[in-house]
Amino acid sequence: MDMSVVAVGREDDSPVEEPMRVAVLADRLGYREVWAGEGPTWDSFVLATAIGAATEQVALTAGPVPVNVRDPLTVVRGAASAAAVTGRPVGVALGTSSKRVVEGVHGRPRTRPATTLEESAAAVRALLDSVPGEPVVPGSGFLRRLPPPGGMLTVAAFGERAVAAAVGHADRMLLDLVSPGQVRMLRARMLAAAEKAGRTPPRLAAWLPAAVDPEPESLTQILRSVVGYLPVPGYSDMFVDAGFAEVVELAVKGADRDTLLQALPPEAAGTVALVGDAATVRARVDAYAEAGLDEIALVPATAGDPAGERTLTALKPE
């Protein structure tokens, strides 16, 4: 199982520079790739560039960036700029994000998300494959001067149309906060889409929260990342099957995040995360591998474990 690390700014009281600390530690421990997450606090391309300047060897992926917020040229230009400054390959990840982020934070309409994802993935793929001297975009009159950023194109997917977009254009398909059962289902969906399209399926990766020997505050931090998924179709069924139907019902009825956090028991974290002692977490990693996952992108809990050092050290590449 390949392991990468997610350095993302949490929208809580975590230090704003925490993603840098996580990335520097991941580089020192020998992880091959760091994801520079996009959010209300950090611009992913600026963060990727800063990480590249502060580290020695990790490859970089920026995103997922919301396709209703950034146009394809902006995405590829950002990655190419970061690659030129850092001297490292920089990949890009695309996703539809949520209405809460796209409309509530950016003030942009989240219309036709699946169609926009497909169109954006196709355009980004073409731009990533272009070379210096070619037009930036056909008919623009501007020629490309920077070389391609050199990293993978990743598409975050869950629904059938998003999976088809990933299969059609991406090197890697990304899942977020999934159980081994969901991995098995989504891998089957990906393979079916690839067979229908006559294409080689992309690699399958998942962002998974992780906490080895977690402190209580570590579990609370993970649960905060879970509550937003409780009312989402597909995810809600997973939590119901795991025995948390009452909390899912609260979420569907519109309970706020603090109410859901109080109602969600600590053991719920284990549904979609790597939590427990080292042996338990390793067994959980094996379960994801058996379900068909190619890569785990660790989102280390940092509450009670600064920079996720305990977790990242326990799971570091051998």
How would you sum up this structure, described in words?
Keywords: Oxidoreductase. GO terms for molecular function: oxidoreductase activity. With 318 residues, the chain is α/β, with parallel strands linked by helices. The chain folds into 2 domains: 2-213 and 277-314, Luciferase-like domain (TIM Barrel, Alpha-Beta Barrel), CATH 3.20.20; 214-268, no CATH class. It has 14 helices and 9 strands. The chain has helices at 18-29, 44-54, 72-86, 99-102, 113-128, 160-169, 180-197, 216-227, 235-241, 245-252, 257-263, 269-272, 278-291, 309-314; strands at residues 2-7, 33-36, 59-66, 90-95, 150-156, 172-176, 203-212, 274-276, 295-300.
When the domains are counted, the total is 2
Beta-strand residue fraction: 15-25%
Q: In the CATH hierarchy, what is the architecture of the largest domain at level 2?
A: Alpha-Beta Barrel
End-to-end C-alpha gap: 11 Å
The strands making up the biggest β-sheet line up spatially as 1-2-3-4-5-6-7-9
Average pLDDT across residues? 94
Pick out the low-confidence regions.
none
Keywords: Oxidoreductase
EC number: 1.-.-.-
Pfam families: Bac_luciferase (PF00296)
GO molecular function, one term: oxidoreductase activity
